[in-house]
Amino acid sequence: YIRYRNRNQKTGDYFLFFSRFVNKDLILSGAWPPKDVIYTEKVDDTVIGAVSRIDTKYDNEGFKAEKAGTLDEAIVQYTKELEVHPKNELALYSMANVKMLKGVFNGSRLALDRIFDLSQTYQNGWFMNGIFFFRQQKLAEAEQAFKRTIELNYKYSSAYYYLANIYAQQNRQQEALTALEGFDEQGGNIPNAYDMGIRIANSLNNQLQSAYFGAKKAYLAKDYQTSYNLVKKALGINSSYEPAKKLEEVYNKSLNNQKK
Predict the structure, then answer these.
(1) What angle do CA 29, 147, 160 make, to 5 degrees?
(2) In angstroms, what is the C-alpha Rg of the chain?
(3) CB 82 within 8 A of CB 53
(4) Is the dihedral of CA 151, 156, 160, 163 positive or negative?
(5) Which residue among 59, 132, 144, 179 is least packed, with the fewest CB closer than 10 Å?
(6) Alpha helices in the chain (DSSP H)
(7) What's the pLDDT at 42?
(8) pTM, entire model
(9) Using 50, 70 and 90 to split pLDDT, how confident is the model at 45?
(10) Is the Cβ–Cβ distance between 100 and 84 less than 8 Å?
């Protein structure tokens, strides 16, 4: 099993995908179903599922090269994939990222523009667009792109993280804390985010959020005793602080399970 958005991470002979979680505009532009379609299931002439033959493995080879850090090889493989499947939004997304990592921003822009030709509502395209501007320190444009990402999917935790980075750079400290709260609420697990939260909260003399972000940082590091102590500290400052109450509940459930 593989999620549609991660399909380049595995290979085989065939894909079986349903349209339920596919971006509508990608469907309308013909980017879905992917690869060499051999069968479709329709309801009222609308395709709801498809079986595709995996006729190339260039995107998987590109993914493996990108993961290994061999960026030139990744570009070669993604280029081959896009020659065969020019509407493969994952290959375009990955090409945009790899080109950026190589410092080839014009090539990255071309890949992003091709994504937006396929869909103006593809959340990953907007997120990568934010990264494109962020890496060039074009913070106003990056902010708008990350906000658009969240409009399309409020659970996109990484977009909150980058917004917090932007606000911190612009000395918009309270907005940075709010963005970090969003990151945390949506299950973000980047340790640096909690370091940032602690630092900003301390600068604002916000002992509540300093304690809470410290608790989450310790939790991610599996230092559960320190985390629990900091949760109790946060609740001692404000017993109604919902994020701390939720983390305390995690510990209470764990203790109850140990007693059974």
Answers:
(1) 115
(2) 22
(3) no
(4) negative
(5) 144
(6) 24-28, 58-68, 71-84, 89-101, 105-118, 123-134, 139-152, 157-169, 173-185, 191-203, 207-220, 224-237, 242-259
(7) 85
(8) 0.90
(9) confident
(10) no
